[in-house]
């Protein structure tokens, strides 16, 4: 009887421990979700509405927009994260001197929609002409100019200030879209992040043998080490719209990376922590530990839609560099397609 009593006592203690651990995990997870959603500021994109659609509805509700004879409502449960690849060597660190802070050569939005449990990717051309805030050597604000959006990163400190400036610029480009977190990774960190998940398989979509002999057009390649770096980084600046072609490669690589990472994570649940530790010297982020807990457990049930949205528009040659001008109608439509839901009448 005593042995049975001791066994029951042990079982009870273990049960209590499990309840405490589970409750603690759920609390941290809930805090993470609350923290993420608070970053959106409760705002909605500043999308204009069609007055003609409003006139056809007897009781128009606040938050609705009219577009092409339909009514839409912003999905405020969506979580959007800005991912950037910074054109800078060595580790990512705060820099005081001008000209050494790096530009955002790769710019993506990762969109997580809990309503259909899908993840979408939006690729933004680094040459997109946007409102860029200019700061002097002392850090004093000196005005706003129209320039390639990638330059906005260079007017910060090379780390969090630069990332926050990019977040603001990308949000403004997308009609003040709420963004719930950022992650900026130095391009030199690509081999590390790539090899940690076991490499990424791609079919090389253009001839890059000038950078790496393995990267011939049409070749099926498992990207590892420096080969992965050149696949997402290289471009011939003497070729017009070379950045657009590179952006297509980056989008293709990111698509393969997501699938490979999901498979690797299923085999090793500690891999996200390993990846975070190895990337730390090369990255900056405002995504906190409790938010990571929420995202890691939530993302496991999501599926990547397989579609990567690229902004439609036109590339023109500026006085010195190429300039990309988004098609406003296409941009408007894309924001509605991804971030809004139709209101059924």
UniProtKB/TrEMBL annotation:
<dbReference type="Pfam" id="PF03816">
    <property type="entry name" value="LytR_cpsA_psr"/>
</dbReference>
<comment type="similarity">
    <text>Belongs to the LytR/CpsA/Psr (LCP) family.</text>
</comment>
<dbReference type="InterPro" id="IPR004474">
    <property type="entry name" value="LytR_CpsA_psr"/>
</dbReference>
<feature type="domain" description="Cell envelope-related transcriptional attenuator">
    <location>
        <begin position="104"/>
        <end position="261"/>
    </location>
</feature>
<protein>
    <recommendedName>
        <fullName>Cell envelope-related transcriptional attenuator domain-containing protein</fullName>
    </recommendedName>
</protein>
<dbReference type="InterPro" id="IPR050922">
    <property type="entry name" value="LytR/CpsA/Psr_CW_biosynth"/>
</dbReference>
């Amino acid at each position: 009887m005593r042995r049975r009593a001791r066994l029951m006592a042990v079982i009870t203690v273990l049960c209590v421990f499990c309840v405490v651990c589970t409750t603690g995990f759920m609390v941290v997870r809930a805090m993470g979700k609350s923290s993420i959603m608070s970053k959106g500021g409760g705002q909605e994109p500043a999308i204009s509405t069609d007055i003609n659609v409003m006139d056809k509805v007897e009781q128009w509700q606040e938050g609705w927009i009219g577009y092409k004879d339909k009514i839409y409502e912003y999905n405020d449960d969506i979580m959007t994260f800005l991912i950037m690849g910074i054109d800078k060597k060595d580790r990512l660190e705060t820099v005081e001197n001008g000209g050494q802070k790096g530009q955002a050569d790769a710019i993506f939005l990762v969109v997580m929609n809990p309503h259909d449990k899908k993840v979408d990717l939006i690729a933004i051309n680094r040459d997109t002409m946007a409102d860029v805030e200019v700061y002097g050597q002392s850090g004093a604000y000196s005005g706003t100019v129209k320039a390639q959006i990638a330059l906005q990163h260079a007017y910060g400190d090379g780390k969090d200030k630069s990332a926050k400036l990019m977040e603001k610029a990308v949000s403004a480009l997308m009609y003040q879209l709420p963004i719930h977190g950022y992650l900026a990774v130095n391009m030199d960190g690509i081999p590390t992040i790539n090899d940690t998940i076991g490499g990424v398989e791609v079919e090389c979509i253009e001839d890059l043998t000038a950078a790496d002999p393995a990267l011939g057009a049409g070749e099926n390649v498992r990207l590892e080490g420096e080969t992965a770096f050149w696949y997402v980084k290289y471009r011939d600046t003497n070729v017009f719209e070379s950045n657009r072609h590179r952006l297509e490669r980056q989008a293709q690589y990111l698509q393969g990376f997501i699938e490979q990472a999901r498979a690797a994570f299923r085999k090793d649940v500690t891999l996200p922590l390993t990846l975070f530790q190895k990337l730390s010297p090369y990255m900056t982020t405002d995504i906190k530990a409790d938010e990571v807990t929420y995202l890691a457990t939530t993302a496991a049930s999501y599926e990547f839609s397989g579609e990567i949205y690229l902004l439609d528009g036109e590339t023109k040659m500026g006085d010195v560099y190429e300039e990309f001008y988004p098609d406003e109608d296409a941009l408007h439509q894309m924001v509605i397609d991804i971030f809004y839901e139709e209101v059924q009448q």
